[in-house]
Amino acid sequence: MMAQYLDIKAAHEDALLFYRMGDFYEMFFDDAVAAAEALDIALTKRGKHDGSDIPMCGVPVHSAEGYFLTLIRKGFRVAVCEQMESPAEAKKRGSKSVVKREVVRLVTPGTLTEDALLEARRHNFLAALSRVRDEIALAWADISTGAFHVMPLTPARTGAELARLAPSELIVSETQEESLRETATDLGLPLTPLGQASFDSTAAEKRLCDLFAVRTLDAFGTFGRAEVSALGALIDYLEITQKGKLPLLQPPVREALDRVVQIDAATRRNLELTRALSGGRAGSLLSAIDRTATPGGARLLEQRLSSPSRDLAVIQARLAAIDFALDRDRLARDIRVALRKTPDLDRALSRLSLDRGGPRDLTAIRDGLSQAAAIAALCEDEDLPRLLSEATGALTGFDDLTNLLDAALVADPPLLSRDGGFIATGHDADLDEARTLRDEGRSVIAALQKGYAEQTGIASLKIKHNNVLGYFVETTATHAQKMLAAPLSDSFIHRQTTANQVRFTTVELSDLETRILNAGNRALDIEKRLFEGLKAAILEQAARINAAARAVAELDLTTALADLARGENWCRPKIDDSRAFAITGGRHPVVEQALRQQGKDSFIANDCDLSAESGAAIWLLTGPNMAGKSTFLRQNALIALLAQIGSFVPADSAHIGLISQLFSRVGASDDLARGRSTFMVEMVETAAILNQADDRALVILDEIGRGTATYDGLSIAWATLEHLHGQNRARALFATHYHELTALAGKLDGVENATVAVKEWQGDVIFLHEVRKGAADRSYGVQVAQLAGLPKTVLDRARVVLEALEKGEREGGATQKALIDDLPLFAASPPPPPPVKPSPALELLDSVHPDELSPKQALDLIYKLKEAASS
């Protein structure tokens, strides 16, 4: 056995080998040590090898999926080695023969299909990146749903597209592994290198033609050599990991670079589109707007949020569908009720195609197609917009299949086909007979005994059973003579005579005994055969079922976004090819929701107009920290993004010209692992924006130039703003604390000043969260520091230094230096502040008891307060 183990392990050195031993998967040697530590299970030993103990650990087969998930998340790959025959079959070759075993599957992050290993509401993409001479292409697939795509790339867009897809695993050529490692590390992508032969475009083309049973790929589109190479490498990897059993992939869909908005990794992170900065889903835009009822709808929402469209016709069609759902509120609610009962068709179909499915996948297809037909019936007499009409058209035509599945399957089947009991009674006569014999053997024997008693006229005749004879007919010696004589002797065969009884058998009884003994196994065999037949019937219509699943997701997303728009009072945006960007009453969807959940004041809405017609495509935003500048920047970027996924937006009105790129430089963080300071990270991200943004881009920048000397930072921010205005010509929101930049609004035609309003009251700052035209006079940094809880001695000292610096700046550099030199050193115990003169108005109020005032006394009090305040 150990020789067999070592041979199999030698072929899968980069994976933990789960070696099947009866009801357990066992691991040995270094695999056992690594797995025991990763899974926190006991490490023991079994036998010796070269004189040393062999480390061993194991996990039960029935709970292996949970262990797979733990290992995958910790960076391991798993080779699943199954027994290909029973021990009894192995013994036929010799008493010491080892049971045949083979690796049937490699479990890797990008090749998961089981529900227990996947997030139901997220895609799980496997991607392959290829370079053929000067061409670059990226292919990706989700084998749990069958999605299969490819697109050409430029070097500058590679990181952005990988960030958009966030694949669980990235396949690359061994020759490119090192050059891509830094990008993969930045994005947190596991790299899987393959030999160069897997990326050979000629072999890849043949591989694809064989998979889809076509002579040429022209029917699917025109693909470059790099695209074919990436597609073929992905298929080759699936053949390796699935051991030749390929998933049910849809024909490859080619995506064009100019069909989606370019959003780089930094922007996705800063805007928290699908993941919050903390790393979880909670707090992200996706979490705030997701009201989908099905896993497929949730995956479609995330896909669109990651890939906003630049196709005006597509966006308008989606908005029209939401408009319809809002107008037909009752119909939309009825559709959502049906959607909540709809299982995940895509993933059930994928598991069946890979022989990983069970009876519940059959019922998922049955129930999903039944609900699809119910949804189509709801929409039958409706004048649907084109998008919804196409979707509902894909939901019908499955009557024969659903009738077959409905007749064949029980309502609530077991998880595994080997458990049996999932085929309904009455569907198959042979199965019913086997079950009757298995479950009601005694009653069948009793009926046969009654028949024999009537045939022989011997009322005391019994059918009994023992381990030697099996089933037999028993009667007394007196009655035995009758059965030994003709004509009964032709039917009853003598088996044994005892002191008081004589035992017989019959051909019928022997046959019944055999059938009773084999009934359990026979019933399971029949159910397995029927399972395969039902699976084949489903897979014959796989393409149409996939189309139905996409239609269900489309209807789900449309009605979910309509429900969101209605519940949150969102408006339909006006989208066109202009350079307009006019938002009235815009709100941040995530912050607004969070405020409501905390029971705080409602969100303060603000306008933003970056339209060319307004004369200012760039707003220079000033104001103190904590006033809401970053929120204002982000909310306008999110409104634009939501509009281009085809959603209503959180605003009173919105007119947005199509955006080609979305860039965000908001927030500060360092990258110590790569030796980058916070300022360096900021400069790298800013450089990417200035080098890539075109005149249809939307850019939001916050505090460019911080992290270095004041004048260095100011000069960088100044030059950046000029470049955005003169070279990129992008629509932009530029927040800064450098008030000197506000002078540019008078020099650059396309720049306008805006500020977040605050109010100062008795030394404290009150944030109004209102964005107004104009520039802030100062940053209120000391007041914000006071709110943060800095010690009073520090705040007092800061005010003294600030006053000296501001006075010196007004009077010139030399005067400023002299004032700074004259400042006394920081005192641990500063002199007490001068006493504050009491306010007569406050003293008067202290003496008043409001509950005791009459209306006339209250009016007199107001006059007294006014007189005291003016004194």
From TrEMBL:
Keywords: ATP-binding, DNA damage, DNA repair, DNA-binding, Nucleotide-binding. CDD domains: ABC_MutS1. ATP binds at G623, P624, N625, M626, A627, G628, K629, S630. Pfam families: MutS_I, MutS_II, MutS_III, MutS_IV, MutS_V. Residues 697-713 form the DNA mismatch repair proteins mutS family domain. GO terms for biological process: mismatch repair. One of its GO terms (molecular function) is mismatched DNA binding. Signal peptide: none annotated. Gene3D superfamilies: 1.10.1420.10, 6.10.140.430, DNA repair protein MutS, domain I (3.40.1170.10), MutS, connector domain (3.30.420.110), P-loop containing nucleotide triphosphate hydrolases (3.40.50.300). The keyword Kinase does not apply. It comes from the Bacteria. GO terms for cellular component: cytosol. This protein is involved in the repair of mismatches in DNA. It is possible that it carries out the mismatch recognition step. This protein has a weak ATPase activity. Belongs to the DNA mismatch repair MutS family. NCBIfam families: mutS1, PRK05399.1. This is DNA mismatch repair protein MutS. The gene is mutS.
